[in-house]
Amino acid sequence: MTEHFDVVVVGAGLSGIGAGYFLQRDCPDRSYVILEGRERLGGTWDLFRYPGIRSDSDMYTLGYSFKPWTDAKAIADGPSILRYLEDTAREHGIDRHIRHGHRVVAASWSTPDARWTVSVERGPEREATQFTCNFLFMCSGYYNYAAGYLPDFAGREDFAGTVVHPQHWPDSLDYAGKRVVVIGSGATAVTLVPEMAKTAAHVTMLQRSPTYIVARPAQDKLANWLRARLPGRLAYRLTRFKNVTLGQFFYRLARKRPEKVKTRLIDMVRQELGPDYDVATHFTPSYNPWDQRICLVPDADLFAAIRDGSASVITGHIERFEADGIRLQSGELLPADVIVTATGLDMQLMGGIPFMVDGRRVDPAQSLGYKAMMYSDIPNLASSFGYTNASWTLKSDLTAAYVARLLNTMKKRGMRQATPRLSPGVEPQPFLEFTSGYVQRGMAKFPKQGSRKPWRAHQNYALDLMALKYGSVDADMEFSNPDPQCRAA
Question: What's the pLDDT at 142?
Fold first, then answer.
C-alpha cells in the first residue's frame, strides 16, 4: 500500500530533524514523513563511534537556531550531540514522523500527477514499498554512509596487525598499550590521536602534507557567563550572533590577507610546541588558510599529547604496508600494531539514488545548483548542504525555512510545481572552491554552481540569510501545474 505525504524528507540526521521542525512551524497544514535508512536518528552523530568523536564547530552555531545548546562545552563530544538531536526530536514531536529502517533507493517525478514516487527498501528483509509526495526534501548528507574512502595501499594484506577505518569503528578494538599509526591529518585524525594516546603505547599521526590546526578552549567563557545571567534563549542568540560574526570576520580576513593569517596560525602552533619543534615540516601547509577546512583542537589536546611524548607527527609518503608497520618512501619504518586509515569520506550526492522526471533519467550532477539547494529543470526537489567554512546547521536551517516558504508560495498561488529554470548568461563554475582531497575526488558527483545569483553558492551566512529569508522566490523559478481544485474553485 502506497502512503502519500505532502513532503517526504530523506534522512533523520542534523538536517532532517531541522527540516521537520520548520515544516511543522511554517507549514502546519502539510503532512510529512522522515525516511531514515538506519535504526536510529542522528546521521553522522550516530554512525561515527570512533574514540573522541566530537564537533569541529562550536555548538552555538552547529546547534539549531530554535533549540539552545545548554552544555558547558562549546566543542562537544559525539554522544552529547546525539543526545541533543534526540532531545530536539522528542521535544517537538518530530520523532513521531520518523520511519526507521526505510532506505530510499529511487525517486520518480510525474508532471501530470504533480508528485514524486519514492521507492524504498524497508527493514532487514529489504521489503519493497513506495511513498508518494508533492515535494521531496533530501537531507541525507554529502557522503556515502556505507563506506569511507580508502586508498589502495600496497602490501596491506601483509600487515599482521589490525587495520580500521574510523567510519566503521569496531566496538571490540583494544588498542591499550599498542603502537598506533593514524594515517591522515584532517578533523578525524586530530581527534583520534590525542584520545588514543591516553592509553596506547604511542600514537603516530602520519600525514602526506600538513593541515592548518588551531587550538581553542573547549568552553566558551562568555557564553557560560551570559547563560548564568540572562534568559537561556537570549543568551544563546547573543552567543550565536557573536560566533557567526567572528567566524565570518576571520574567514574574510584569511581570504584578503592569506600570508598574514598563515603566519599567525603557524606562530600559534609554535607557541604550543616550542621553538625547537619542526613546525615548518609538520604544521606549515603549502596552501592558503581556508583553501581547505581548518582543523580545530579543543584545549590544545593534540599539542599536549605531542609535548608529553605520547603522540608524534610524521610527514611523508607511504611506500607500502609491511608485517610490522608502514614503510615510508624515505625508507623509514613506522612500527604499528594498529593502523587507522583516517583517509577521508567518499562524497555522494543525495545518497546516490537515481532520479527520473516524466520517465526520463536525470542526473542532478549534470545540472546547475539553484541557491545551493535545488537543481535546474528538476521540479519540487531540494537538498540540504551546509557550509564548508562554517557550521553545517547555519545553512541547513536557512534551507529548511526556504523550502517551507516555497511550499507556502505554491499553495497561495494554487500551483503544484516549482522548477528552477536557467536564464541566459549563466556560466557554470565548480560547486565548491575547496582543494581538500575528498572534495576534489567527489566534485564530479555534484552539480555546478552558476556565475551569478540565484545560482551562486555563496558560502556566506549573511548573504544567504538575506537571500533565502527575505529575497524573491521568483528569481529564475517557474511556478506551474495549477491545482485543479483551486482552478475549479
Answer: 86
Please report the pLDDT score of residue 49 as a whole number.
93
The DSSP annotation for 400-451 comes to HHHHHHHHHHHHHHTEEEEEE-PPTTPPEE-S-----HHHHHHGGGS-BEES
Burial of 415 (0-12, 13-18, 19+ CB in 10 A): middle
Secondary structure class of 189 (helix, strand, coil): helix
Cell of 224: 557560560
Within 8 A by CB and 6+ apart from 136, the residues are: 7, 8, 10, 107, 116, 118, 380, 381, 382
Separation CA 447–CA 13 (nearest Å): 22
pLDDT (0 to 100) of residue 153: 94
Mean pLDDT of 485-489: 64
Nearest to 198 by CA among 182, 167, 218, 177: 177
Q: What pLDDT sits at residue 383?
A: 96
Phi-psi label, residue 129: left if phi above 0, alpha if psi -120 to 50, beta otherwise: beta
Report the length, in residues, of the chain.
Answer: 489
Q: How far is the C-alpha of 329 from the C-alpha of 337, rounded, in Å?
A: 20
Tell me the CA distances in angstroms from 95 to 34, 168, 404, 450, 470, one per residue in order. Answer: 9, 25, 19, 37, 30
| CA dist list (Å): 30 to 7, 11, 83, 145, 480 | 7, 18, 28, 30, 19
DSSP string, 73-117: BSS-BHHHHHHHHHHHHHHTTGGGGEEETEEEEEEEEETTTTEEE
Three cell numbers written together for 78: 559525539
CB 165 within 8 A of CB 341: yes
Find the DSSP H helices in 274-377: 279-282, 301-307
pTM of the model: 0.93
